[in-house]
Amino acid sequence: MNDTPKLAALLVAAHMLPAQNSIAMIAAVMALGGLLLSRRVAETMSRRVTRMDPTQGLSANLITATLVLGASQFGLPVSTTHVSVGAIAGVGAGADTLNKITLRTILLSWVATLPMAAGLAWLTLQLF
Question: 125 in a domain, yes or no?
Fold first, then answer.
């Protein structure tokens, strides 16, 4: 529900091509992104933030689903990944198994993302 903006950029770029090519391009870019980048994210979330047993995993997933769906009902833009990492970190903190170094690294990357995206957007606008 809240991951729709990711597709928006692809759709904007896709308008430069015929419809059939646009669909193929979007599918290819999404598949490539998943193949190249999802493994590291999944590995970090599932093993490096904290070790979880099935009950802890279910708890983290239920919290993630509740918060993302609730935010969507109110039109609040939240990142599913951010919410999920927060829920996983909460489970790890509750079980006293949280890897604080990994969590700190994730948090620092999130803090850096906003100014980097703003700078790149500004630079792109200047080029076009």
Answer: no
Cα 80 to Cα 42, 68, 83, 114, distances in angstroms: 13, 6, 5, 16
pLDDT band at 39 (very low <50, low <70, confident <90, very high): confident
**pLDDT, mean of residues 20-34:** 80
Answer yes or no: is 124 within a domain. no
Closest CA to 92 of 58, 60, 125, 127: 60
Residue 117 lies in a domain: no
Number of separate domains in the chain: 1
What is residue 63's three-state secondary structure? helix
With 0-12 / 13-18 / 19 or more C-beta atoms within 10 angstroms meaning exposed / middle / buried, residue 62 is exposed
Which amino acid is residue 63, in one-letter code? I
User: Is this model's pTM higher than 0.85 or not?
Assistant: no
In a domain, 24, yes or no: yes
Phi, psi of 76 (to 5 degrees): -90, 125
Write the burial class of residue 114 (CB in 10 Å: 0-12 exposed, 13-18 middle, 19+ buried).
Answer: exposed
* Residue-range definition of the domain harbouring residue 47: 4-99
